[in-house]
Specification:
Length: about 160
């Protein structure tokens, strides 16, 4: 049976998704079942590879792009620890991301979570992002029949978030 490949919502690349998906599947077969990122990079290295144009091959540019990726991972790793008292005498430590990626005017960047929760437009962006993540997990679980009953929990959470939007 032939597979139909598409890019996940929110993602696009220069190479056609059918071509990329089939190439990845071929690489999995060639590697006895396990594909790694380095195998994809090696396969994309020749200019004749259909994957080639989706990579930056100028090492000085690629190095800076990697540093920016590292910076994004670093900022996404910082949490603020809030101590709240849900009941008298009981304290819970709740780590929360300190910075959130948002769109502001014509650019994307990070702002403090504290700012997001006080700005209606930024908070709506955060909720929309959470709903997108929930939908992604829902789709992943739906692929496995034995876990499909969990989908109703995501639906309930989804409905609850929509109410606070």
């Amino acid at each position: 049976m032939s597979m139909i490949y598409q890019w996940r919502p929110g993602f696009s690349w220069k190479v056609d998704p059918q071509v990329a998906g089939q190439r990845f599947a071929d690489l999995v077969e060639e590697a006895d079942g396990t594909l790694t990122a380095s195998m994809i990079v090696d396969d994309a290295r020749p200019a004749t590879s259909p994957l080639h144009n989706d990579f930056e091959w100028d090492d000085s540019v690629a190095a800076n792009e990697w540093r920016e990726h590292t910076a994004r991972m670093m900022i996404a790793s910082v949490v603020v620890v809030n101590v709240r008292e849900p009941e008298p005498g009981e304290k819970r430590v709740m780590p929360v991301r300190a910075f959130v990626n948002v769109r502001q005017e014509d650019r994307r960047g990070y702002t403090t979570t504290a700012r997001v929760v006080t700005d209606k437009e930024l908070f709506k962006q955060l909720v929309d992002d959470i709903l997108g993540s929930i939908n992604s997990y829902r789709m992943k679980l739906a692929a496995f029949k034995e876990y499909s009953q969990i989908a109703h929990l995501f639906d309930e959470f989804d409905e609850g978030l929509k109410k606070i939007k």
